[in-house]
Amino acid sequence: MIKKLYFFILMLVGQACYAQSISARLNNKVISFDGKNDLNEDLKFNHNSTYLIKVYQENIDIEINLYDKEGKKLASTDLADGNKGYDKLEYAVTPSRIYRLNIRSVSPQAVPNGIIKINISTLSKAELNRRKRIAKEMEPENAKDVTTIDIKHFWEAYDHLNRAKNYQDSVHIIQADYLGRYETRRIGCERYQNLPVCNE
Questions:
Q1: Which of 178, 156, 160, 179 is nearest to 169 (CA)?
Q2: Taking the alpha carbons of 177, 181, 182, 186 in that order, is the dihedral positive or negative?
Q3: Is the domain defined by 2-126 classed in CATH 2.60.120.380?
Q4: Per-residue pLDDT tens digits for 110-163
Q5: In degrees rounded to 5, what are phi and psi of residue 125?
Q6: Distance of alpha carbon 112 from alpha carbon 33, whole angstroms
Q7: How far apart are CA 189 and CA 195, in angstroms?
Q8: pTM of the full predicted structure?
Q9: At residue 192, what are phi and psi to the nearest 5 degrees?
Q10: Which residues, including other chains, have CB under 8 Å from residue 82's CB and lie 6 or more apart?
């Protein structure tokens, strides 16, 4: 019985040391990454923790993937546009287990001077509670219907700005064609008949 207990404790300590060594080896280290091959690392994540994986990329465009031990993709991100910036991936762990972090290049060719810097951290309970509180406060706002016609109106207003002769014209065009769309346009055109948008 003592041998079994000793073996069990040894396994736990070994796993904890393994997870710490991975974290110490990866965290905030600049890594030369040309993108010819993927970078794969096994990470021990603990139960009921939310992990933030943040990867800085320079001169290379990358994608972050997280897989379980069976090879099923659990999460993926490629937020940073171009070849400089941060990609961030959050994952809430349910069972403690080994996960595989995969970083691969999405640049069209190998980049000899590409670098990445990986940071893996856990989100604190206070941060998670703060996010829940904000989500609760935003529920009424998030329940509103959003239409994409606003995007069309914005670009129409932008296109009309080249007809503005002065600052006041610009303000009225933005108000008429975007901010107030119909009502502001009607009022603006009643007051300022010479606005370019009133003649359309």
A1: 160
A2: negative
A3: yes
A4: 999 999 999 999 999 999 999 999 999 999 888 877 667 778 888 888 999 998
A5: -60, -40
A6: 8
A7: 7
A8: 0.60
A9: -125, 80
A10: 61
